[in-house]
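Bit of a strange request maybe. I'm writing a small parser for structure token strings and I need a real example to test against, not something I typed by hand. Could someone generate the tokens for this chain?
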Amino acid sequence: MVARKHALANAVKFNGKANAGSVIAKIIAELPEAKSEMKIVGKEVNEIIKHINELPLDVQMHELEEKFPECSRRKRKLNVMKLKEFKHVGI
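Reply from user aminoacidic:
Good idea to test on real output. This should exercise your parser:
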């Protein structure tokens, strides 16, 4: 599920086309122990990306928002807006 989450987020960010290198980097950042299994991780990521890149962008966005709301661009945008409200406080 971690690979799918990062692949969807990457695809949505880049107009429907995920990049394997970026997705693998995100997986390693989240699960450092996966680095010892790079051959397997790389193969699985490529399969997942192939499937995700075939989906229309709106389907990718919907799945990302439904299954991984923490990665949703809308949610990130709202968080940035909330942070801007506190900018005058010096945080």
